[in-house]
Amino acid sequence: MSRWKISAHPVSWLTLLVTSLAILITSLDAAILPSVLPQVKEAFGLNDTQAGAVNSVFFVSTIAGALLFGWLSDIVGNGYRRSWVWIAAMALSVVGGVFTFVLASSWVAFQLMRVVMGISRGGSEPTNVAIVGEWWQVENRGFAVGAHHIGFPLGQFFAPALVAALLGATNWQTTFLVLPLIGVPIMIAQARLGTRRNQQKVYDWISERGLTPPLPSVERGERAPNPLRLLKGVLRVANVRRAILLNFGFLWCELGLSTFLVVYLTDHTTMSTGTAILASGASGLTGWIGQIGWGTVSDHLGRKRVLLVCVAGWVVTVVPLLAVGSAWQAWVLLLLWGLFRNAPYPVIYSLVIDSAPGQAGSAMGLMIAVTTGLGGAIVSTVAGFAADHWGWGWTFVLLVAGPVLALVPLLRIRDSARARVAVPA
């Protein structure tokens, strides 16, 4: 059991806490609009297809943010230098939250702020994942990335609960002020913690205990001459290409389902909007168990085996949602989905960092751009169109096809954790 024991330098633990809170902001950012989508539809007179297009604008913008900030985080330098790139990306979300509140009555302004916040989402997540991957020893990378992703299930639960409470006291525009209120203190904490001195302490601690540092040193690596060459190098890594397709399959299902979950529950059951919003966040209560647990298991049994379990878990928990008819059934099924919902992402991200350690920012940026950005943009509109024209049954079939088809690239992935040898970049 000693090999399952997790220990790290105190700074590594603090970095894990701050980056987890940073992911919480990303999760809140993604969860607020779906939670208030019924109110947005009413305010601007939208049908489901048009409402899906609103979210598509957000996800299209993440493509630019992920590629730009992912590349910048590698160019500026790895380790502690990435903190400033993340802070710059997060600042856009703060600005977007403030101006959405101020100008949300204008359709043009609302759409423009979705663009700003989409760029922030695209840029902050890959940079943040790369940060945590470079402040923990390789032997516990799956645990660290999984624990750092605890912000996602927390956001998935607390965002709907917070929105439901705020809607009872104020209007939907006010919910976007949550982002700057939480984001600014986290930005300050990241700036104070992410220093060269702190990173050197961590790397000395890792080396003294015979563990594997995530990078050879804290010194600046060779700068890539241009973004196209850097991305070309990333795409040469077979594991990265297959991980992108795999991540796309999971996100296709999650983003499509989460965008319309409140709408589906209010249409398909007798649940009120407030009850449906609260229930939609139920998976967040169990999500942290799945992602920390499966992330840790992947350090020892392999990334590939864990991801196969996640595919099966998604199918057996998402499909029964089609038959939900009451609040308690929705809660039970969504709590079960939570055990698998967030689990694949930290495992996939760990796989990517294992496979391209020197290009983690660009690799993660490319993945977020293709999967979250492009996938989210397409599936939001496609799911809305399917719900309008074919009904929820075919919509669910369309969404579940994502993780099922993801088995194709998954079966060809080389298991980086079990091999303990990085694929050359």
TrEMBL record:
Keywords of this entry: Cell membrane, Membrane, Transmembrane, Transmembrane helix
Gene3D superfamilies: MFS general substrate transporter like domains
UniProt key word Transmembrane helix: yes
InterPro entries on file: MFS, MFS_dom, MFS_Efflux_Transporters, MFS_trans_sf, Sugar_transporter_CS
Keyword Transmembrane helix annotated: yes
Domain of life: Bacteria
Taxon lineage: Bacteria, Bacillati, Actinomycetota, Actinomycetes, Pseudonocardiales
Spans traversing the lipid bilayer: 54-72, 84-110, 172-191, 244-265, 271-294, 306-324, 330-352, 364-386, 392-411
First and last residue of the signal peptide: none
Topology versus the membrane: Multi-pass membrane protein
Any single Gene Ontology cellular-component annotation: plasma membrane
GO molecular function, one term: transmembrane transporter activity
SUPFAM superfamilies in the record: MFS general substrate transporter
Source species: Amycolatopsis bartoniae
Name used for this protein in its record: MFS transporter
Domain annotation Major facilitator superfamily (MFS) profile: ranges: 15-418
Location within or outside the cell: Cell membrane
